[in-house]
Design goal:
Blueprint: H1 4-17, E1 22-24, E2 33-35, H2 46-53, H3 85-97, H4 101-111
Antiparallel strand pairs: 1-2
Length: 137
C-alpha cells in the first residue's frame, strides 16, 4: 500500500542531504557560496498537517497535535498535558517498530501518534513546527 510516507521519502532524503549544505557557484560568488536547507514549518490544513506529520486524525480519540486532551474532554475547554518532541518521537518510533496493523491501530488510539518520515530529520519537532489550528486560539 502506498502511503504519504512512501511518497514523501524522496523529499525527506533530499532535505536531509542539504542539512550540512552544498556549495553553489554563481557569477557573484565564483568560488562558491554555501547553501543550507532546512524545513521551517509545516503549513497546511488540519487534515494534511496531521497526515504528513504523524498525528492521528482530528476525529480520533487523541486528536490534538499540541496537547494530550482526549476527545471526551473537548467540551471542558481545558488544556491537556502539553506534548513534547521526545514523547512524540518515542511513540512514533514505537509505532514504526510494530509490524502488526492491529497493534498499530491500538497504539494510535492510545497515543494519537503514528510514524512520519519527517522524523528522519534530526531537527524536526512536530509539536512546535506545526502552527496551532484556529480552534486552539
Amino acid at each position: 500500500m502506498i502511503t504519504i510516507n512512501n511518497i514523501m521519502s524522496v523529499f525527506i532524503y533530499e532535505i536531509a542531504s542539504l542539512k550540512s549544505g552544498i556549495i553553489i557557484n554563481t557569477p557573484k560568488y565564483p568560488e562558491g557560496n554555501k547553501v543550507v536547507v532546512r524545513l521551517g514549518r509545516l503549513l497546511g490544513d488540519l487534515v494534511a498537517n496531521h497526515k504528513f506529520s504523524g498525528f492521528a486524525s482530528h476525529s480520533s480519540t487523541c486528536f490534538c497535535s499540541w496537547c494530550a486532551c482526549p476527545k471526551a474532554n473537548i467540551q471542558k475547554l481545558t488544556i491537556g498535558r502539553l506534548l513534547q518532541m521526545w514523547i512524540f518521537k518515542d511513540y512514533s518510533q514505537a509505532f514504526n517498530d510494530l509490524k502488526n496493523e492491529a497493534e498499530r491501530a491500538r497504539m494510535v488510539k492510545k497515543s494519537g501518534i503514528k510514524w512520519s518520515g519527517l522524523n528522519r530529520l534530526c531537527y524536526w519537532d512536530p509539536v512546535h513546527m506545526i502552527p496551532i489550528g484556529i480552534m486552539h486560539n
